[in-house]
Design a protein that fits this description.
208 residues, alpha+beta
Length: 208
């Protein structure tokens, strides 16, 4: 049975201070990672079983928001089942995506969801290792360098708004990823290779 993980709450003043600090850091940042996510075949799933889709979206949204908080991310925008997020650390961006995919893949989805398009259980060629389970999330990550994006503070919503070529590229990367896939740009791969803990042969190779 699908259950939501209880969300931790903070008092309003502490939350406001944290948000202010994050806004200041984002507005000052010259580089950052943009992550764009989307639920594959969401329209088809919604049309097939509206009540099941509602449950999927609830679990999906709670999972993503909990992991945004855990990995120091910032929710830029959301439209339906699509999220646009940024991280000051490329490692946090990658760990966020891996954490979301792992959590959703290990969820015990009810049969009325497992039978929906793009939601069934899939095994590898040995039939022993589970590859996919439940709804598939497309995820794209792009590391934005200085001068490729701009940001400003919206006085009404108290939110940081982003625009620029890097932000648009992250959207495109998210759109072309397959469901269940985390697609990264070369700038992400190069940035991750600079981190000592990630310099392993098992970290993503580059295919041309």
């Amino acid at each position: 049975q699908v259950t939501s993980i209880p969300q931790q709450t903070e008092n309003g003043q502490e939350q406001a201070v944290k948000r202010f600090d994050m806004n200041v850091a984002l507005l000052a940042a010259k580089e950052m990672a943009f992550v764009c996510t989307d639920l594959e075949n969401s329209t088809l799933i919604s049309n097939s079983n509206p009540s099941a889709y509602k449950l999927i979206q609830e679990v999906h949204d709670v999972t993503i928001r909990q992991r945004i908080k855990r990995h120091n991310g910032y929710e830029i925008n959301t439209q339906g089942d699509s999220f646009e997020i940024c991280f000051l650390s490329v490692a946090d961006a990658c760990l966020f995506c891996l954490s979301v995919q792992e959590r959703l893949g290990k969820t015990k989805w009810p049969s009325n969801i497992s039978s929906l398009p793009s939601c069934g259980i899939v095994y590898d060629s040995t039939r022993k290792v589970q590859v996919f389970n439940g709804p598939r999330i497309r995820m794209g990550i792009h590391w934005a360098s200085a001068g490729t994006f701009s940001s400003y503070h919206h006085d009404v919503t108290n939110h940081v708004i982003f625009k620029g070529s890097s932000f648009e590229l992250a959207r495109l990367v998210g759109d072309i990823a397959y469901g269940g896939q985390i697609l990264i740009t070369e700038s992400v791969w190069r940035k991750m290779r600079q981190i000592k803990e990630w310099k392993k042969d098992t970290f993503p190779g580059v295919e041309s």
